Amino acid sequence: MKITTLLAISLGAILTNNFIFAQFLGICPFLGVSKKSDTAIGMGLAVTFVMGLASAITYAVNLLLVALGLEFMQTVAFILVIASLVQFIEMFLKKSMPSLYTALGVYLPLITTNCAVLGVALLNVQNEYNFIESVVYGVTGGLGFLLAIYLFATVRERTEFADYPESFEGFPIALITSGLLALAFMGFSGLQVWPM
Amino acid sequence: MNFGKQFKEGLLTNNPVTVQLLGMCSTLAITTSMANGIGMGLSVTIILTLANIFIALLRKVIPDEVRIACFIVVIAGFVTMVDLSLQAFFPAIAKSLGVFIPLIVVNCIILGRAEAFASKNTVLASAVDGICQGIGYTAVLLVLCFFRELLGAGTLFGVQIMPKSYVPAGILVLPVGGFLCLGALIAAMQWGLKKAEKKNAKKEGEQA
């Protein structure tokens, strides 16, 4: 395995194939938890952590499923693994890092239904990544999510006070904003720093 | 129980996408062609109805503390069934929907309806709710697909509709177009609902 492959995966996950703006994974928390930039960062970090860990564990689970010939149970097995992982992290944080736990609050259990987490597990299998590639893809995908949600939250803090048509209040203006951000991220498409 | 009222709620006043703002990921991602929209809409409607029925049946058995986990397992089971059937009978659609079929598991519409409706209501009412909410979701998908495919590629169901001289606005089938179209659609719905509300308020005022 070459280091350039890993770099290419990371670059793709953060910029060119950003989970939010290019693949539409994790839109719900993206729109829901982006009213303030500091909670957005908390959410982004939590998602990054869970995505990295989930990639590692689902890789192992998938090996087990393939060995048993139960590939069709993938979706069920993955969602169970992710749900229990999130539950476990919640218990762990509550006990050992209560300050982080209170900061994340309700967002932590919500990660279970974040499609970016299940999405990264499924994409890892689909792309036939090995263990290290899977973990790198998970972590950098999460960093891409963090970048997107932070940028969006800072823009959104300003649109609060902007003057736009009444019908666009709430989600429509947020969607238009993210559309424009997606347009900006399109500028990264085709970016290739080194030959694959 | 009122079928007409539930239908109106699902389609307009409590539409899962434009009002409850659930299930955004799939709505934005797959609405690039009519065929995709119909495939996704039907799959979600079927899964939503089956999951609602099943959860309503089990609502007295499932302990409150672990209900979310139970719901997810039920939903994941149905999603797997639909996923495998699509792969077997409609491989083209399964391929173009890709990862978004297994991702129906975490589509918040289904978990949301299970939590908000099916866990508190009878089997029949839950089934009707599933069908109505599913239709509401499909309707939004189709509206978005219609505009994005017609203007973005000049076709409908893959058939050329616009005259040859029309230059497709390719941006609409890109992710950007999804965000912009859904934003405009929700804005239009909010405008319409507000107008209807004002009209009703005026009518009531006159009566009083």
Briefly, what is this?
The complex is a heterodimer of chains A (about 200) and B (about 210). With about 200 residues, chain A is mostly helical.
Topology:
The complex is a heterodimer of chains A (196) and B (208).
Chain A: H1 3-16, H2 27-32, H3 37-68, H4 74-96, H5 98-104, H6 107-110, H7 115-126, H8 131-159, H9 171-186
Helix pairs in contact in A: 1-8, 3-4, 3-7, 3-8, 4-5, 4-7, 7-8, 8-9
Chain B: H1 3-13, H2 24-30, H3 34-58, H4 67-89, H5 91-97, H6 108-118, H7 123-153, E1 155-156, E2 159-160, H8 175-207
Antiparallel strand pairs in B: 1-2
Helix pairs in contact in B: 1-7, 3-4, 3-5, 3-6, 3-7, 4-5, 4-6
Question: If you had to describe this structure to a student in words, what would you say it looks like?
Answer:
Chain A is 73% helix and 0% strand. Chain A is mostly helical. In chain A, helix 7 (115-126) runs antiparallel to helix 8. Chain B is mainly α. Chain B has one domain. Chain B has helices at residues 3-13, 24-30, 34-58, 67-89, 91-97, 108-118, 123-153, 175-207; strands spanning 155-156, 159-160. A two-stranded antiparallel ribbon of chain B has the order 1-2. In chain B, a hairpin with a 2-residue loop joins strand 1 and strand 2 (159-160). The chains are: A mainly alpha (196), B mainly alpha (208). The A-B interface holds A 21-28, 31, 72-76, 79-80, 83, 112-115, 118-119, 122-123, 126, 165-176, 178-180, 182-183, 186 and B 21-22, 24-26, 28-29, 68-69, 72-73, 76-77, 79-80, 83-84, 99, 102-103, 105-108, 111, 174-180, 182-184, 186-188, 190-191, 194.
Mean pLDDT value of chain A:
83
Number of helices of chain B: 8
Strand order of the largest sheet of chain B: 1-2
Structural class by SSE content of chain B: mainly alpha
